[in-house]
Amino acid sequence: MQSIRIAKKTLAMAVVLSIIWFLFFWSHIGILSFENVGSKAIPLAVKNKLCSVNYADYRSNVNNNNTLKMIYYVTPTYPRPEQVPELTRLAHTLMHVPRIHWIIADDQPLCSDVVLNILRRTNLPFTHISSPKPFLYKGTNFPRGVSNRRAAVAWLQENVSDGILYFGDDDNTVDLELFDEIRNTKKVSMFPVGLIGGYGVSSPVVKNGKVAGFFDSWPGSRTFPVDMAGFAVNMKFLKPSASMPYIAGHEEDKFLVSLDLKMEDIEPLADNCTKILVWHTKTAKYKKPTVKINLKQFDGEPKFQNFVNLLKETSRLGMASIESNNGTKPYIIRDRKSYETLTGLQ
User: Fold this and answer.
1) Do residues 101 and 73 make contact, with C-beta atoms less than 8 angstroms apart?
2) What phi and psi values does residue 248 have, to the nearest 5 degrees?
3) Which residues are annotated as a binding site for Mn(2+)?
4) What is the CA radius of gyration of the chain?
5) Contact indicator for 337, 344 with CB cutoff of 8 Å
6) For 72-98, b where at least 16 C-beta lie within 10 A, e where not — what string?
7) pLDDT at 336
8) Calpha distance 252→243 (Å, rounded)
9) Per the annotation, where are the binding residues?
10) Structure-model confidence comparison of residues 31 and 129, the more confident one
């Protein structure tokens, strides 16, 4: 009996020590650290990495008047088949904007060469950050882009004292006129965003030149029911207290509240919020296919090297996986006939 009691005590002590070690380990890496933002707050554990920074503007076609305030355009992104085309489309808008610094924060633990290549090709000043979301929530439906925006804001607070902050997602469409307007933001400016929710638009309601309320199909008990693309912030108004929670639907509101923003501080733009200069276009999701092709079969076939290079590029850009043993069996088409191999093109 005594040996049983000793065994029970030993087991209990082992359990207690295991729990203590578990709590110490997880708190040490930040998993048990919570934001005080409500019952739905999510523990934080992200390791951001500054991948690359370029302050030089190599564009010769844009007149970069130094009297203009710099716009810091923050774009959260994540790996998916649509990532490259969406960033490319946005890049070709930003390339026409004077005095702009593009910050791309990427939701993956490694610095993406694909993303960096897009940034370099624009000739814009840029900052590239690896900013993965908390790994406890990988694969769940928690809000994307929060860890990215937090990382970008942290970089701005450490490196920038003057300019305009704007959150622009990679699936937004932006009129160039918007940049001219937000550049004059004194504290926080707001404006309509098209293609939002059940009303087709999310916007402040302006009365006598002042924001009197908000038109948004989801109130959500929010003080500022606006879309992420519907406001800009002067860096001098970006207080050290600025934070964004991991609470779906409340990211914008809690961020603006953390700035101690008052209704009378809001500057309505876009002709007193009567014009739409930005849209949340939301590119349709594309399920990444796997194509069954054994590239080794093309070894020693220089006449098909262009086709092989195309397949490799498709894989590199994340638009399809090329596997030798798994996936959809492809066909080559010529003269309305389908061939399982390239023999039909010989």
Assistant:
1) yes
2) -55, 130
3) 171
4) 25
5) yes
6) bbbbbbbbbbbbbebbebbbebbbebb
7) 76
8) 10
9) 171
10) 129
Q: Quick one: tokens of 267?
A: 């500057």
Tell me, yes or no, if 264 is annotated catalytic. no
Provide the residue type at 262 as one letter. Answer: K
Q: Are 176 and 93 in contact (CB under 8 A)?
A: yes
Amino acid (1-letter code) at residue 130: S
For the chain, strand residue ranges (E) read 49-54, 71-77, 100-106, 126-130, 164-167, 172-174, 188-190, 193-194, 201-207, 210-215, 231-234, 266-268, 278-280, 290-292, 321-323, 332-334, 337-339
Model pLDDT for residues 16-36, shown as the tens digit of each residue? 556 554 444 443 333 333 333
For residues 138 and 43, the answer to whether their CB atoms sit within 8 Å is: no
Distance separating alpha carbons of residues 160 and 225, to the nearest angstrom: 28
- What number of other Cβ atoms are within 10 A of residue 3's Cβ? 7
pLDDT in tens, 254-293: 999 999 999 999 999 999 999 999 999 988 888 899 989 8
Instruction: Spot the catalytic one: 82, 252, 267, 340.
Output: 252
Mean pLDDT of the chain: 86
Nearest-angstrom CA–CA distance, 18 and 23? 9
CA dist., res. 17 & res. 311, Å (int): 54
d(CA 204, CA 266): 10
Which pLDDT tens digit goes with each residue over 297-307?
Answer: 776 677 778 88
Helices (H), the chain: 2-29, 83-94, 113-122, 146-159, 176-182, 251-258, 270-273, 305-316
Q: What is the largest CA-CA distance in the chain?
A: 88
Rounded average pLDDT over 320-337: 84
- Output the CA–CA distances (angstroms, integers) from residue 88 to 94, 121, 200, 250, 319, in the order listed: 10, 10, 26, 29, 14
Quick: pLDDT tens for 222-255: 999 999 999 999 999 999 999 999 888 899 999 9
Contacts of 199 (CB under 8 A, 6+ apart): 215, 216, 217
Taking a C-beta distance cutoff of 8 angstroms, is the pair 142, 248 a contact? yes
129 vs 118: CA distance, rounded Å: 14
Q: SS3 for 93?
A: helix
